[in-house]
Amino acid sequence: MAREYKYYGTYVHLGGEIVERLRKKVGYTGRNQFRLVCKAFSKADANRQAIALGLGEKLFDADSCETVNAEEIEYCDKFGMAVSNGGVHIYDGYSGVKELLSEKGV
Fold it and tell me: Could you give the CA distance from residue 59 to residue 67 in angstroms, rounded to a whole number?
């Protein structure tokens, strides 16, 4: 049986480069708490992706859950791992984490 992707969401505190890029790209002015969503086979897989991107360890924990929000699922399919543009306000759209971290001069 083939493994199926799941969509996980959690609220996290982020700092450093990713927050600065969100500030420049979308004009984010809030605090450093964000909604982070990921397309993965499991929470462990989602954590491996977060570690590989330099976001931290154990971001997707027991309090994290599968998301059924259609907009979040759409952004996960597009980016793999996405962070909300409006901090914890999930209706301000999402940006791809890899894309944010790889942009030059943003």
Answer: 15
3 state DSSP class of 47: helix
Q: CA-CA distance, 68 to 18, in Å (whole number)?
A: 25
Domain ranges of the chain: 6-98
- Please state, in angstroms and rounded to a whole number, the distance separating the CA atoms of residues 19 and 34: 9
Helix (H) or strand (E) holding 17: helix 17-26
Whether this model's pTM surpasses 0.70: yes
Sorted by sequence, the CB contacts under 8 Å of residue 36 that are 6+ apart come out as: 9, 10, 11, 12, 14, 50, 55, 59, 81, 82, 83, 84, 97
Return the structure tokens found at 80.
């793999």
CA distance 76 to 88: 17
Element (H, E) at 86: strand 81-86
pLDDT tens string 21-75: 888 888 888 888 899 999 999 999 999 999 999 888 999 998 889 999 999 999 9
